[in-house]
Amino acid sequence: MSQNFKLTKEFLASHIWSWGGLNEPPLTTSLRFSDDGFITGYSHPNEHMWKINNNSLEILSISGDVSWEFKTFLETDSSITFIALPNSDPNWKTFFGLTTNKKSSSSAPTAKEEGIRLVIWDLDDTFWEGTLSEGEISPIQRNIDIVKTLNGRGIVNAICSRNTFEDVKARLEQLGIWDEFVFPRISWGPKGPLVKDIIEKIQLRPETVMFVDDNVTNLNEAKHFVPELNVAEPDVLESLLDNPRFKGKPDPEYSRLKRYQVLESKHKDMAATGGDNEAFLRKSDIRVSFHSDIEAEFPRIHDLVNRTNQLNFTKNRWPEDIEEARLRFREEVEADFDTDVGYVKVADAYGNYGICGFYLSRKDEFLHFLFSCRTMNMGVEQFVWRRLGERHVPIQGKVGSKLEDPIVDWINVVEDVDKATGNTSNNDKLSNLTICLRGACDLMMTSNFLRTHVSTIEEFNYAYEEWEIVTTPRILALHEDLKDERNQDIIARLPGIPSNRFDSAVITETADVYVLSFSQESFHGLYESKSTGMILPMGTYHFPYYLPEGPTAKFDYTSFTYQDILDRGMSNVSEEQWNFFRNEFSFRGGFDKSLFIHDLHYTFNRLKNSGKKVIILGLNDKIGSDVRILEFFSKINEIVSNLAMLYDYPVINMRDFVNSEDDLANDGMKGGTHFNRAVYKSVSDAIIESILITL
């Protein structure tokens, strides 16, 4: 850094940053440096934490290694850019930059006292004048008005009083205000434990609670049991409604009060079960529904993202201005093709809680994962996390729940919790089905919508030790070859073969419905064992998918020496493994039509004989800039559709949903293999409709 530039924590935290390769579109325009040393607004394992070291900015990976060290900056009149090369790969000669306006970003969060969401009232000589147990009391109209006004602002009121419960209830009913309170704790015991119990039952953070009492000893006792609690003597009431912390939000229908009254009823019913929370939850008929129309419900979701704390696991906030927040949300969705986003509604036997959860993930890591405290202790966050595939949640700050426990089996998924129950819904019909999705990114993205309605087994391509593992019909047909012990020995000596390489629900017949897609036929070259004739697809990320001639033209890996692959950057292959592969296998080329048809027959016969329902997802062969891949997909579609007709398997045509380039993903390529979220949602709906027809 320049000798004149002093890098400070305050400077970094008060700005919003763009991040990406220099002279390239940014990976994000919403990166932030949190005071706690974490990076928010952008999620990647290489950029997880940060620190200042000798006036240099260091970016640390999720494992704690220094990924970037920024010692140099470029400065203009209005902006500043830190630049660096990646520490993890010094041979990668691409400069990356962090850029921000010099002025502090108005939307960056600033420290302030939190708004109050609950007021706990003492009664004698606080809410009213006098002591009820000693005779008549005198109501204070100002305090009655305060309670009603706070409820109208969405700030609820509770009672903690040393008195006889029946006497207090009768007097407050006479005043017409008993129903304005929730969770009354009225007894002759110490107040500290009672205040703590109210806060725990009402599921709010102590920082958002105010306890008002005329006895300083009671206030100190409450602080002893709940150190973060706000406490005050009755003189605070004179100007309480003018205090910004009690501003709340307009709630003329008392919706928050009603929700806490429902919560109070639930606690009473749970107590009737002997305090067994899980037994109570199983009787509560908890239902959730998953939805993807974020823009239609954006005000509520914006409020959830910026206001939730206890069950906000990621705490990546948006700008307070709703239109700025909307732009930020769109940037987050469009930043990566592999983005899954949705919101969750919740209802149970006690009422409908509305939109209570929101999630947004990229590449199996959540950027947002959060829930309203309305669902505290219901198991909703654990259920949703497991339903979405237990993706990584980079937890920020304190949270009021663990995702790993408990294992939730008392929640049901429905189409929409807002719809009246009584008729058998589609989700009821699907609830006992397991669907196996086997294919590439088309089904991987569709699974984001399907898994919120049905149980799924997901068999997609993935990386293993620098090799790509594909889920083509060839892998299934190899089960016949692997009955030969010689082939088992050959497989054991090859690189890039995980122990579960040939596992599939197609073989174990553990799914009820199978949805299959075949775009991966263009991915890998084929290699034939000289000893046994076994044919394997092999592909590594260190070589392009295909040569300039087109999708069926592949590199012949057997032509490369061990030194050649080391020069290519491969590191998880031993010389013994590579030489064995070169000597044992001969290169057959790319796509083999007759072999593909053979493998399709093997797969289709196996599923037909087991009585399984099969749905084929066709490939887009019309829209996109990669003409050669579209032509290849057209050939695949022709082969597959003819065989599907023979086996009486329905085909969902991707061309029914992809009608123009507007339907393609905004990934900078528009090749024709990736689509926008609306397309995947439509494909998911078509799959569900196809299943329901036969039920």
Automatic annotation (TrEMBL):
InterPro entries (UniProt xref): HAD-like_sf, HAD_sf, HAD_SF_ppase_IIIC, SGNH_hydro_sf
Superkingdom per UniProt: Bacteria
Range of residues in the leader sequence: none
Any one GO molecular function term: hydrolase activity, acting on ester bonds
NCBIfam families linked to this entry: HAD-SF-IIIC
Protein name: Phosphatase IIIC
Organism, scientific name: Acetobacter pasteurianus subsp. pasteurianus
